[in-house]
Amino acid sequence: MTLNAAAAPKPPTVIHIEGRAKVRTVAERAALDIHVLDTGYDKDLASKNVITAVNTLQSRLDSLVSRLENGDISPASPITFYSIASLSISTRDDYDNEGNRPDPDKKLHTASSTIDVHFRDFTLLGDMVVRLSAMDYVGLRGVTWQLTDAKQAWLDEEVRLQALKHAIERAEAYARIISRERVTCVKIEDSSEFWPSGQMMQTARQVASVEAFGVGAGIQFEPGNIEVRGTVSVEFHAE
Question: How many CB atoms lie within 10 A of CB 48?
């Protein structure tokens, strides 16, 4: 007896979907990039000027940071973190605009350091920008908007789940078109680089120089919007 080929079950249709999602939220922190630098023929003087400026800044930051009894920075502190890089000194030949060396025996020495400050209080950020803009040897490279670790972890999970839901909806739509009644998820591949360091999508304003900040009674910083994107690869069987 021969089986009716029409009655044999159809093999499942394999559907591969790349689910995508994005979540937008308002930044909770602002990181200010400060560069302290002096250049001159006197290496000791250039170093002294930078060290003096850095010490002044550190004293100011310490007065603004609220600490717990154990010495850690309080979560309620207007400044939640700061770090100061060690002094760096470089030496180079001195050339004029025409590429000549006015005095071959003289070298130009550059002393520099960088300071990274994270603000919770954006009003204080505006006040600090004005103060720092008026300081000798201090340059402001820009503001980067950030999230707290807890909010970043929550967005990490949320955007992954939304990307999976997107993949399921697309697979079910395809199945309806090809007259398949049941869709089963058989494989999910999560991105291992969902939060690559320094790669978080940002739509915040960027400030590249001291002049771009302007100097006045104060600057009102509005927190930038941060957009996080997620992708998951999902395999379905439609039957």
Answer: 13
- Answer yes or no: is 84 within a domain: yes
Final residue in a domain of this structure, among 119, 145, 171: 145
pTM (two decimals): 0.72
Q: State whether 60 and 20 are in the same domain.
A: no
Residue 224 lies in a domain: yes
The predicted-structure confidence for 39-97, as pLDDT tens digits, reads as follows 999 999 999 999 999 999 999 999 999 999 999 999 999 999 999 999 999 998 877 66
Asked whether residue 24 falls in the same domain as residue 36, the answer is: no
- Can you give the chain as a three-state secondary structure string? CCCCHHHCCCCCEEEEEEEEEEEEEECCEEEEEEEEEEEECCHHHHHHHHHHHHHHHHHHHHHHCCECCCCCECCCCCEEEEEECCCEEEEEECCCCCCCCCCCCCEEEEEEEEEEEEECCHHHHHHHHHHHHCCCCEEEEEEEEECCHHHHHHHHHHHHHHHHHHHHHHHHHHHHHCCCCCEEEEEEEECCCCCCCCCCCECCCCCCCHHHHCCCCCCCCCCCEEEEEEEEEEEEEEC
pLDDT digits (tens, 9 = 90+) for 2-47: 555 555 678 899 999 999 998 888 889 999 999 999 999 999 999 9
